[in-house]
Design goal:
Blueprint: E1 7-11, E2 19-23, H1 27-41, H2 48-57, H3 63-79, E3 82-90, E4 97-104, H4 105-117, H5 122-131, H6 135-171
């Protein structure tokens, strides 16, 4: 997922249907990303919230503890920022806007994770299905998801580095992180 940049191409001619295409990770890479994101966002023992609770209870003062907690707060702040996606539902007869929502980055992640891919929530699923009716909206949703997920992962990688550094500080033993040296198979 991280090795393929995401982008959108939208084109059209007068009198023709608008074409919208997304570039970026394939479905398999997105599915793998979603599995990882679910573990970090939910109430699993591996969620960032639970990890932060563990860090807060550590009886030591360390810059790595502080860096971890600060970075987690920044990740949450970024997730709570508004995305570029604005959703409006209009009344069919009058065209009047009956529902309007500027999606936050967190909402974009939740829509694709819990509204489409993993253990779908019926309300979120209905919203995603409505968004998928337009090719343009659909690719913009996917592209925004890819960008937000990549930024989220970037923060998680930083947390991983702080975690390894704190482990070494506390135990005197190196915690080796094996970074991939080549793109995943199929990318």
């Amino acid at each position: 997922m991280v090795t393929k940049p995401s982008g959108v191409t939208i084109s059209g001619r007068i009198g023709e249907r608008i074409k919208a295409e997304i570039r970026g990770p394939d479905e398999e890479a997105v599915d793998a990303m979603i599995l990882a994101l679910r573990l970090l966002k939910q109430n699993d023992p591996t969620s960032l919230r639970r990890m932060a609770q563990l860090y807060e209870r550590l009886p030591v003062e360390s810059p790595h503890k502080t860096y971890f907690l600060d970075a987690r707060a920044k990740i949450n702040a970024q997730l709570d920022e508004e995305s570029e996606l604005l959703y409006e539902r209009r009344q069919k007869k009058t065209g009047k806007v009956v529902y309007r929502e500027r999606f936050t980055n967190r909402r974009v992640l939740d829509l694709l994770i819990y509204g489409e891919r993993a253990h779908p929530n019926p309300k979120l699923r209905a919203l995603v299905q409505d968004l998928r009716k337009s090719d343009v909206t659909s690719v913009l949703l996917d592209n925004t998801f890819n960008i937000v997920a990549l930024e989220f992962l970037d923060g998680v990688f930083y947390l991983q580095i702080q975690n390894a550094a704190l482990y070494q500080e506390l135990t005197g033993k190196a915690f080796t992180i094996d970074w991939p040296t080549s793109p995943p198979v199929g990318s």
